Structures are given as structure tokens and as C-alpha cells.
Amino acid sequence: IGLHKIETPEVLGARKTLSAVVALDNPQGRALSGTLTATLRDGERTIATSSVAVTGAQLRIDMGGLEGIRLWELADPALYHLDLVLETPAGRDETSTRFGFREVSFTTQGFALNGKPLKLRGLNRHQSFPYVGYAMGRAAQERDAEILKYELRVNTVRTSHYPQSHWFLDRCDE
After folding, report:
1. Mean pLDDT across 64-76
2. First to last CA, the chain
3. Whole-angstrom Cα distance, residue 154 to residue 150?
């Protein structure tokens, strides 16, 4: 299962919606059948579940009328999990993605997060560490995100040239 994207339109409304575009890896071009089930969770609490029949290698699964969803904010980085389970005659596959409901926009008045103005203070990050290059583990990646937020007081980071460590990105989300 490959998750292409999660869209959260209508974020500022009382009832939220979610759409996920999912790609199924099918290198042999076999006929696809089965069910894809998406579960939206807040920790252990299930918020919504939706299923679609597998009709091709790319699927879209939607959830609507979501209530009680907190927006991702700098002071309260509310994160949710979207669990995907694919069941086919050949077996079962699953994946989980963590994300937040938020709206970002650039207007003539500046940047806005969830409809509210926010002054961006940031920097550009290269992931290479002295003496070890790109070989830093989880603790160092997470600590680097903490240094940027708590010691340098930035609220945005531009990542440079190559994929960053998922540990660094996850800690930034948190």
C-alpha cells in the first residue's frame, strides 16, 4: 500500500472531511480485488472508519462529517493516525500514517495558519552532522528538532536537497 496524499478540505468548518489517495503496487499487472479499509484514530480512540472495494491500482477513500477534530497548532500539535488495511485473496497488508488537520495559506497580509496570521521565523537545515555525515540516529535527529524550536526559537524549517530523517520530521510535527 502506498499512500500518495491525505487531503483535509474544509478544515475550518465544524465538521471536517478527509480524503486519501492510495496506490496499490501491482508490478505483475494482475487483476485486483478486495477491500481497502481506512480508520481514523486519535490515540486509541476510533473516530471514523470507511471502506472501498478495490477496483484498480489507485483508490480514493473519503470520510466526512468528522466532529471533535482538533486543529494542528504550534502550541497544540494535534496529530491523528490514518490506518489503511488492504485485504485481498492473496493476503493482508497494512500501513499507518500520522498527520494533522490544518490549513496554511499565503495572503497579501502574510502567512496564515488555520486562518490566523503567523509570523514565520525559520532557517534552512542541512542534515549533515560534523564527523559522521548523515549517519545520526533517532535521538540526535529528534534533539536537533528540539534545539531548533526551544533554543533557536524557530517555527519553520526549510529542509535542503535530499529527504530528511523521518525522525527529525516526526519530531517537528510533534
Report:
1. 95
2. 25
3. 8
